[in-house]
Amino acid sequence: MNHDTSNAAGTGRISGDELLRSRLVARLEQAGRLSEVERQALYDLPFRARAVPQHTDVDVDGASQSVHLILSGIACRYKLWPGGTRRVISLILPGDLCDGHRPLPFMLGNTVGTLTPCRVAEIPRQAIADLIEVYPRIARAFWWMTLVKLSIFQEWLASTGRAADKQLAHIFCELLVRLRTVGLADETSFELGLTQGDIADVVGISPVHANRVLRSLRNSGQIVFDQRRLTIPDFERLKALAEFDPAYLHNGAEFGRSLCMLATSARRDATCDRRAGLVASP
């Protein structure tokens, strides 16, 4: 991929409307409803937004002093081997943080790059560190995002070695569910601007093989491509082919209820500590 040298950027603070459009709040609230004060704290995060062209590196090795938030488009984390072979190891969608909420740079040995044209917000790591220090529920929501990312990594690893049509069907099912979460897919379709080469690198097969698999899925009626939009006419049928179980994405209210229980427990423990004289009263 190319390295991004674009100066097209805007600086300031993320307004409520813009951050909602970026889907970060919607993403975090999958882990439990946030209060108005917590939402406003997210809206007030300082940022620098920039347009990043297709197939351009956003962050190399996680060494940047900023946390990168995808506002639009599809990015990925990938490994480039010395021989030139690229392997996509995760897809990063609008509302996702490219590198988690790490308050310090951490060398990962791989690269974040765009698969489609993207708009990216750079948020200072220190601003994230300050935010999670003040708002424990936001900190837990960020940890939820990190744990979901780990769960997706594990699912992809477990899928390696299966038939290519099953792997690709699984990726399409995952994208539909994840994009629905942030309001970027309807019940059966979403925009997919990936090239055939990108799809090959996601599954770990050659572009020629990817072409055959895509043609097979289209001919069997499992998927329909219209311009840049992918439609899944019968989601249950594609799920059966992929053996797709969305539980690993941890959507829904169950995790949110767990966070609420943790927050209640934390408040109870803090009250007990104050009563026991272990910490000073506020």
Number of strands: 12
Instruction: Please write the string of helix (H) and strand (E) elements.
Output: EEHHHEEEEEEEHHHEHHEEHH
Our estimate of the beta-strand percent is: 15-25%
- What is the straight-line distance between the termini? 52 Å
Mean pLDDT across every amino acid position: 82
Number of helical regions = 10
Task: Classify the helix fraction into a percent range.
Answer: 40-55%
Shape: globular
* Assigned CATH architecture of the domain at 1-135: Sandwich
Provide the spatial order of strands within the biggest beta sheet.
1-4-8-6-7
- Unreliable spans: 253-257, 262-282
Query: What's the alpha carbon Rg, rounded to whole Å?
Result: 20 Å
Task: Report the top-level CATH class of the domain at 1-135.
Answer: Mainly Beta
Fold-level CATH name of the domain at 1-135:
Jelly Rolls
Biggest sheet descriptor? 5 strands, mixed
Q: What's the CATH H-level homologous superfamily of the domain at 1-135?
A: Jelly Rolls
How does the helix and strand content classify structurally?
alpha+beta
Q: What would your notes on this structure say?
A:
The chain has 282 residues and is α+β, with helices and mostly antiparallel strands. It has a domain at 1-135: Jelly Rolls. The protein is built from ten helices and twelve strands. The chain has helices at 16-22, 24-28, 36-43, 125-134, 136-159, 164-181, 196-203, 207-219, 235-242, 254-275, and strands at residues 2-3, 9-13, 46-52, 56-60, 66-72, 75-80, 86-92, 111-114, 118-124, 189-191, 224-226, 229-231. Strands 1-4-8-6-7 form a five-stranded mixed beta sheet. It has a four-stranded antiparallel beta sheet with strand order 2-3-9-5. Strands 10-12-11 form a three-stranded antiparallel beta sheet, with helices on one face. Strand 11 and strand 12 form a beta hairpin. The chain is globular and about 55 Å long. The termini are far apart.
